[in-house]
Write a structure and sequence with these properties.
This protein is an alpha/beta fold and about 230 residues long. It has a single domain (about 10-234), classed as TIM Barrel (Alpha-Beta Barrel). The protein has helices spanning about 20-25, 40-55, 70-80, 95-105, 125-135, 140-150, 165-170, 200-205, 215, 220-234, and strands at about 10, 35-40, 60-65, 85-90, 115-120, 155-160, 175-180, 210. Strands 1-2-3-4-5-6-7-8 form an 8-stranded parallel β-barrel, surrounded by 5 helices. Helix 7 links the parallel strand 6 and strand 7 (about 175-180). Helix 3 (about 70-80) runs parallel beside helix 4. The chain binds cytidine-5'-monophosphate (C5P). The site of cytidine-5'-monophosphate has 13 residues, from strand 8.
Length: about 230
C-alpha cells in the first residue's frame, strides 16, 4: 500500500438511515477517506449496506468490537471478511486465545485479509468505572497491558485514545497501527469528546488512522472539511 496515496482519515458514518448515509457518502471520494460503519448502522441496515459501500470503492472499517468465545469471534471475523471490509475489530479484553483464533481464521483470506485491530480500554471508561470492573489498576497500565497482549497475539493494531498514542508509540512496534477517535480540527466543536487532539497533533504523536465523525458528517460542505484536514496532515 502506498502510504502517500492511502487516505488516513476514516469518516465515522453514524446515521440511523440509509438515505442520510448515502447523501454524505455520495459527496466523498474513496481516494480521500475511508469509512467506518459501527453498531448502530450495522444493526439498522445490515451486511447489504456494508457491501454497497464497499462496492463504491471505499475501504470500510467495520467497527463491531467483537467480544465472545474464540470460536464465535473467529467466525464473526470471517463473516466480516466475506463482506470485503478493510478493517474489523475485537475487544482485547476477550483475551489472546480469542484474538489469535480471529487472526488464524482471517489468515485464510491471504492478501484479501482485512486488518484486525483491538480496542484496549474504551475511552468512555474513567478510573472509577475501571475500578468497578477490575480494581486497583491505572487506566494507562491496563491500556499498555492490553496493547502488548494484542501485539503479541499478532494483530495489526489497536483502537486507542489519541491522548495515549505518544506513550503507546514508544512501547509498540513501529508498524503496529494506532487508530484513534477523539480528533477535532483546530477550532471545531468538541461535542461530547473530552480530550481531543487535532489531526496534525495526532499524526505527530504517531497515530496511523484518524477516526473523525461529526466535524465532517455535520458540515455543510463535508468534502471541503475533509480536504482541509488532509491538507493539514499532508
Ligand atoms: O463524531 P466523532 O468524531 O466524535 O465520532 C467518533 C467516532 O468514533 C464515533 O463513531 C464514536 O462512536 C467512535 N469512538 C469514539 N471513542 C471511542 C471509540 C469509538 O469516539 N473510544
Amino acid at each position: 500500500m502506498n502510504k502517500h496515496t492511502d487516505p488516513i482519515v476514516i469518516v465515522a458514518l453514524d446515521f440511523d438511515n440509509k438515505s442520510d448515509a448515502f447523501s454524505l457518502v455520495n459527496q466523498l471520494d474513496p481516494k480521500k477517506c475511508k469509512l467506518k460503519i459501527g453498531k448502530e448502522m450495522f444493526t439498522y441496515l445490515g451486511p447489504d449496506f456494508v457491501k454497497e459501500v464497499v462496492a463504491l470503492g471505499f475501504d470500510v472499517f467495520l467497527d463491531l468490537k467483537f467480544h465472545d468465545i474464540p470460536n464465535t469471534v473467529a467466525k464473526a471475523c470471517v463473516a466480516a471478511a466475506k463482506l470485503g471490509v478493510w478493517m474489523v475489530n475485537v475487544h482485547a479484553s476477550g483475551g489472546d486465545m480469542m484474538m489469535k483464533a480471529a487472526m488464524t481464521a482471517l489468515n485464510e483470506f491471504g492478501d484479501k485479509r482485512p486488518l484486525l485491530t483491538a480496542v484496549t480500554v474504551l475511552t468512555s471508561m474513567d478510573q472509577q468505572q475501571l475500578d468497578k470492573v477490575i480494581g486497583d489498576t491505572a487506566i494507562i497500565e491496563q491500556v499498555q497491558k492490553l496493547a502488548l497482549l494484542t501485539q503479541d497475539a499478532g494483530l495489526d493494531g489497536i483502537v486507542c485514545s489519541a491522548q495515549e498514542a505518544k506513550v503507546l508509540r514508544g512501547l509498540l512496534d513501529p508498524d503496529f497501527k494506532l487508530v484513534t477517535p477523539g480528533i477535532r480540527p483546530e477550532g471545531a466543536d468538541k461535542q461530547d469528546q473530552k480530550r481531543v487532539l487535532t489531526p496534525k497533533e495526532a499524526v505527530n504523536a504517531g497515530v496511523d488512522y484518524l477516526v473523525i465523525g461529526r466535524p465532517i458528517t455535520l458540515a455543510e460542505q463535508p468534502q471541503n472539511v475533509l480536504e482541509q484536514i488532509n491538507n493539514s496532515i499532508a
